[in-house]
């Protein structure tokens, strides 16, 4: 079981499998957040600590970025479309050895929306 937790522990997730790869996106928000995204079906991610999050939506408002209300860590993004079977968990909240085993993919989210690696 993989755990991803914010700094203060108020927001935490359990995920059965470690990510094989994570995405380093250079879009205007992801590069500022400094996150690496691990993508999962929301059905595979279990929230174990229910601390409150604040959300931020921008552009077409298709996804909501969540951050812990207590410590400010960006924890995940969720889709505003209930039919979309994808969410992003901030892999930097996982233990370093879990993250070290994952391939880092570079996404040009700023211009082409294509992986450049």
UniProtKB/TrEMBL annotation:
Ranges of residues in domain CENP-V/GFA: 2-117
Keywords: Metal-binding, Zinc
One protein family per Pfam: GFA
Domain of life per record: Bacteria
PROSITE patterns on file: CENP_V_GFA
Entries under SUPFAM superfamilies matching the protein: Mss4-like
Metal-binding keyword on record: yes
Record InterPro entries: CENP-V-like, CENP-V/GFA, Mss4-like_sf
Family, per entry: Belongs to the Gfa family.
PANTHER family in the record: CENP-V_GFA DOMAIN-CONTAINING PROTEIN, CENTROMERE PROTEIN V
Name of the featured protein: GFA family protein
Species, as recorded: Caulobacter hibisci
């Amino acid at each position: 079981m993989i755990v991803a937790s914010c700094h203060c522990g108020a927001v935490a997730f359990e995920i059965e499998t470690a990510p094989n790869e994570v995405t380093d996106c250079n879009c205007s928000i992801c590069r500022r957040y400094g996150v690496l995204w691990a993508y999962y079906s929301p059905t595979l991610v279990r929230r174990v600590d229910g601390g409150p999050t604040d959300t931020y939506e921008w552009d077409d408002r298709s996804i909501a970025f969540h951050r812990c209300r207590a410590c400010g860590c960006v924890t995940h993004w969720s889709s505003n479309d209930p039919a979309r079977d994808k969410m992003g968990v901030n892999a930097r909240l996982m233990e370093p050895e879990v993250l070290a085993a994952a391939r880092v993919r570079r996404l040009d989210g700023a211009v082409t929306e294509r992986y450049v690696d």
